[in-house]
Design brief:
The chain is α/β, with parallel strands linked by helices. Helix 8 links the parallel strand 8 and strand 9. Helix 6 packs parallel to helix 7. The longest helix is centred in the last third of the chain and has 17 residues. It is globular.
């Protein structure tokens, strides 16, 4: 028995499913999860001493890689000063000023502890600002595990036996409307029926929790226009894409300015963090400036603020983004033509789509276009790569991430192994 197997047996005795976030349990691919004890650069190391080239990168935040020198130094300095203060402090101010000076639609920002908390809070702001109750979301977009967003969502729910979570109150469900992605007519029909009751439209402008589903700019523009025509706010959930694709996230790439935006992942440098931000008049709704209550003992934790600022400072000149895009182009070219495999990629985010029926047709913009056998086709490939020292996220519906520590040799090795696995 490996150490991972022994630890998993112990973990299942004391925690639901032996994990603290569902995808980690390998439910979508089968087998025993590898317990990791650390990472360095582009590599993970498990408790049995095996190393893996990591393409999960903690599900996105480690854009600079594991243990980046400047980020670690900033966190260590914060740790030495005091790791939890519960007071006003200068570190969140420095990070807030750094972001607001560089992202035009972020006029004001509030730091929280997770993307879920950011979404929960931003929807409360939207309801308060508009005096309306309903929220429109999209199939396959995951906005954390707040009750109203767990309808036809992504992430771990993509492989759940039922599409939505148990335990959701009926009145909460009734206040959430769901539209398909890439279908302007369906969105327009919902607005025609319920537009006067919709407080906000929330969307991942680059859906990346049910596979990677890049949206047409024209679709996003139509959604934005419908929201504004009907007096609803436009919320971009950029927890994954924010500062991943550039300082402006997908809003910057698309040229669409949201009213409100949620962030996470990269802005903490790998430490727990979330944020919601946007127009000053809307953010002034938040206590103590306004009547919308939101608080958190550990919000703007000094370690996360200092590590996040150090990470963003490394990204500010754009060189890392250019290098990551070049690595992504290399991976895309190397995987071209592999039978039964197609790769969707935007910048440093990629998604290998597998099917036993042949290479899936691209682009895939909606969960309805995903091959029915994508999950079963992915599982054996995942385990084969794992045995060859390559770690992808353990789900056919989770995306992969490149980091600044990946090299051309890492990219070529992944492509070589995938090509070999596809050979008869």
């Amino acid at each position: 028995m490996s150490r991972s197997e022994a630890l998993f047996a112990r973990a299942r005795a004391v925690s639901p499913g032996g994990v603290h976030s569902p995808v980690r349990a390998f439910r979508g691919v089968g087998g025993t999860p590898r317990f990791m004890q650390g990472g360095a650069g582009a590599l993970l190391r498990d408790v049995d001493g095996r190393e893996y080239v990591d393409y999960c990168m903690a599900f996105g935040p480690l854009i600079l890689g594991h243990g980046h020198r400047e980020v670690r130094a900033a966190a260590e300095a914060a740790l030495a000063r005091g790791w939890s203060l519960g007071t006003a402090e200068p570190y969140s101010l420095e990070l807030a000023e750094f972001i607001t000076a560089r992202v035009p639609w972020v006029e004001s920002i509030r730091f929280v502890n997770s993307g879920t908390e950011a979404v929960m809070s931003v929807l409360r702001v939207a309801r308060a600002a508009t005096g309306r109750d309903k929220i429109l979301k999209f199939e396959g977009c995951y906005h954390g595990h707040t009750d109203s967003m767990l309808l036809r969502a992504g992430s771990g729910l993509a492989e759940a036996p039922v599409p939505d979570s148990a335990g959701l109150a009926r009145e909460v469900i009734n206040e959430t409307l769901v539209a398909p992605l890439d279908d302007v007519d369906a969105v327009q029909a919902i607005f025609e029926q319920a537009g006067r009751d919709i407080a906000a439209v929330i969307i991942e402008p680059l859906p990346a929790n049910y596979g990677l589903l890049p949206q047409r700019t024209e679709f996003l523009q139509a959604v934005a226009q419908l929201a504004r025509t009907h007096g609803a706010l436009l919320v971009f959930d950029e927890v994954i894409s924010g500062f991943r694709l550039g300082f402006g996230g997908y809003a910057g790439l698309s040229g669409i300015r949201p009213d409100l935006v949620t962030y996470g992942k990269v802005i903490g440098g790998g430490f727990p963090v979330g944020a919601y931000a946007g127009r000053r008049d809307l953010m002034e709704q938040v206590a103590p400036a306004g009547p919308v209550y939101q608080a958190g003992t550990l919000s703007a934790n000094p370690l996360a603020m200092c590590a996040g600022l150090a990470a963003l400072q490394q990204l500010a000149d754009g060189a890392v983004y250019r290098r990551l895009d070049a690595l992504g182009q290399r991976l895309e070219a190397a995987l071209a033509g592999i039978p039964g495999l197609a790769l969707q990629r935007v910048g440093s985010i990629f998604w290998p789509v597998l099917s036993r029926a042949g290479s899936p047709a691209l682009p895939i913009r909606s969960i309805r276009q995903i091959p029915a056998d994508a999950g079963p086709a992915f599982a054996p490939t995942f385990h084969a790569l794992l045995e060859r020292g390559i770690y992808l996220a353990p789900s056919a519906f989770e995306v992969g991430f490149l980091c600044a520590a990946h090299t051309e040799a890492h990219i070529d090795a992944l492509a070589t192994e995938l090509r070999a696995l596809a050979s008869p």
